[in-house]
């Protein structure tokens, strides 16, 4: 194993200054990008956000953000606490009222659509907190995502989720409150897919999860994009986005500070001090250094 991994591959380095727990290095190879045409999930021109603004009373949270989210791509968004990441996703999903800008899906203006109508159009928001129905079993939680669909079709979709996440199949009759954090996150993702989601907005995918689970979920996110879905991935850990995303947007005080391909983003983050800030924040929180995370020293 490389005992001197590059900083940008270590998701323990975060733009947050108040890490709640250690986040040792995730060892994961970048997933291969699709070389051919995506599957039938991909339709139309994708999701376009133009000059989006979100205010809470007089306080601006999102100040004119624009994103292009084509099918088959993972669009990453990173920023410190309070940068406006969750507010941006909420505005895209229709969960909060926007005060300016537009959201278009396949060239159709959906800015005025409520959240449930956007959901019917295939836009699903997966919140940072593991939102499951605690008293329902794994299967029942997944089935909820197919509300209004033919029962046979719902069963087919649920079985596909069990193929994607074999661990859930093993625990399909277990009440969801007894699941681990990673398993609950898998249920949330699975329920989104049972709805038939074309656009998945992930808020803090890796938050509070063990590195092994994060590695698995990175692969899942890449697979979903490679099938032609539109993925927007908000993260606090730089390394996760550098592994999963095709493009990265740096959000600072509600505005896009940088937007570009992942390779360019890595260099820009280093040149502008974000990597150094992330290293300092991680060390202050007691996170392992890249060397000890890779070698197992200091445990």
Topology readout:
Layout: E1 47-56, E2 59-69, E3 74-78, H1 85-93, E4 100-105, E5 108-109, H2 115-120, E6 123-126, H3 138-144, H4 151-164, H5 166-170, H6 181-194, E7 199-203, H7 211-226, E8 230-235, H8 238-244, E9 247-252, E10 255-261, H9 262-271, H10 274-284, H11 290-295
Parallel strand pairs: 3-8, 3-9, 6-7, 7-8
Antiparallel strand pairs: 1-2, 1-4, 4-5, 9-10
Helix pairs in contact: 3-6, 4-6
CATH architecture: 3-Layer(aba) Sandwich
CATH topology: Rossmann fold
- Main sheet? 6 strands, mixed
Strand content: 15-25%
Overall residue-averaged pLDDT value: 81
- Structural class by sheet pairing and helices: alpha/beta
Q: Say how many strands there are.
A: 10
- Would you identify the CATH H-level superfamily? P-loop containing nucleotide triphosphate hydrolases
Query: Which class in CATH terms?
Result: Alpha Beta
- Rg, Å, rounded: 19 Å
The spatial strand order of the largest sheet comes to 6-7-8-3-9-10
SS element count, helices = 11
How far is it from the N-terminal to the C-terminal residue, by CA?
Answer: 17 Å
What is the element string, with H for helices and E for strands?
A: EEEHEEHEHHHHEHEHEEHHH
Parts with pLDDT < 50 across at least 5 consecutive residues: 1-13, 16-40, 281-299
Q: Provide the helix percentage.
A: 25-40%
* Count of structural domains: 1
Broad shape: globular
């Amino acid at each position: 194993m490389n005992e001197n991994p590059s900083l940008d591959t270590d998701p323990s380095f975060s733009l947050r200054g108040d890490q709640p727990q250690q986040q040792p290095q995730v060892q994961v190879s970048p997933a291969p990008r699709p070389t051919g045409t995506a599957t039938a999930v991909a339709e139309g021109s994708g999701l376009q956000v133009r000059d989006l603004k979100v205010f809470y009373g007089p306080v601006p949270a999102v100040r004119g953000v624009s994103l292009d989210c084509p099918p088959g791509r993972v669009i990453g968004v990173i920023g410190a606490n309070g940068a406006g990441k969750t507010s941006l996703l909420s505005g895209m999903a229709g969960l909060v009222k926007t005060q300016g800008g537009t959201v278009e899906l396949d060239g159709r203006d959906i800015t005025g659509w409520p959240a449930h109508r956007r959901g019917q159009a295939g836009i699903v928001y997966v919140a940072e907190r593991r939102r499951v129905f605690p008293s329902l079993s794994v299967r029942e939680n997944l089935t909820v995502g197919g509300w209004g669909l033919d029962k046979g079709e719902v069963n087919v979709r649920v079985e596909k989720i069990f193929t994607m996440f074999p661990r859930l199949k093993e625990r399909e009759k277990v009440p969801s409150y007894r699941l681990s954090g990673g398993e609950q996150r898998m249920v949330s993702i699975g329920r989104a897919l049972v709805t038939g989601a074309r656009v998945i907005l992930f808020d803090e995918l890796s938050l509070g999860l063990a590195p092994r689970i994060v590695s698995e979920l990175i692969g899942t996110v890449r697979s979903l994009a490679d099938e032609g879905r539109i993925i927007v991935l908000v993260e606090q850990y730089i390394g996760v986005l550098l592994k999963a995303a095709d493009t990265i947007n740096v959000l600072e005080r509600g505005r896009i500070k940088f937007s570009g391909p992942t390779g360019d983003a890595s260099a820009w983050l280093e040149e502008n001090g974000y990597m150094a800030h992330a290293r300092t924040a991680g060390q202050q929180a007691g996170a392992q250094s890249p060397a000890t995370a890779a070698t197992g020293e200091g445990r």
